[in-house]
């Protein structure tokens, strides 16, 4: 079976879970063609991401003129479908208040439909319910192959009407949510008759990449990993560290990542006098992330909005407990036996959890890590999850 994966920007440093999913499908014998609107090559540091970028067909590299010729050629041969798809694009654009943008999506969709036909693609699968799913839905309306998409959150949950999630779900062969919470949010936007096509397939990790955990360090070291954006809550974490650190002289936090709030976070660290307590590393490759997890006693995730973060899976697989906010799909994985859950947006509650963590003996932290490791391997083995996804592609589940 030939599958095409469609992502807006691919690969990205934060999208290693998509690469793992594709490769797991390929291990099962499926042929997967990578399609993306654009590349993020200049920002990539991981050699595996760079290799994946070279394997990906980036649509916008064609240039506007060649893309227009390809799109018009496909649509002119199918005038009725082109008219139907144009009306759908316009309706979606009205909801999003971006009519012109959706006409551009229509042109991209026509080219994607043509490429899928040229390549003999049986099924088009988009990651994220945003513009990549819009292009997939429009490509289908233009006479392209059947499609599906994976919804991660939180972006899709923030603007379901503007993203026309209901239209997309109704037209898709199936829709994947990465958690039960995510599925519940999608069920809100379609009639109950469509609920059976919304399936839960977890993002996954490769257990073989996580050998026996490194010995638990004896000092209270935390690591936080993610994009420095509003939804991740890192400024709140700095405030929690400022409250907890004076009572915990050995406490240290490493922040791995980058993004639009880097300057804000750096300034907050300096203002709170925490430059010797908090280290900023920038983005690291997968080996670098695993090294930071090995150096830490626990991962901390202060997010305001999430789907189900892969970094939580990676931390548990590395045998490290997790301190996280009790939001979205996080409580489905992080339980009291392998971490602490706190209310989102509460710096004091986060500081209290940090103090409880620091008072926990290393042996108990290691025991929590072992429990988390067993839990994540049972729920998030990428080969098991890819097998479920493959059955959905094949129509056998």
From TrEMBL:
Transmembrane region(s): none
Pfam families from the UniProt entry: Glyco_trans_1_4 (PF13692), Glyco_transf_4 (PF13439)
Domain of life where this protein originates: Bacteria
UniProt cross-references to Gene3D superfamilies, sorted A to Z: Glycogen Phosphorylase B (3.40.50.2000)
Glycosyltransferase subfamily 4-like N-terminal domain boundaries: 93-209
Residues making up the signal peptide according to the UniProt record: none
InterPro entries: Glyco_trans_4-like_N, Glycosyltransferase_grp1
Record SUPFAM superfamilies: UDP-Glycosyltransferase/glycogen phosphorylase
Key words of the record: Transferase
Keyword hit for Transferase: yes
Molecular function (Gene Ontology), one example: glycosyltransferase activity
Name of the protein this chain belongs to: Colanic acid biosynthesis glycosyltransferase WcaL
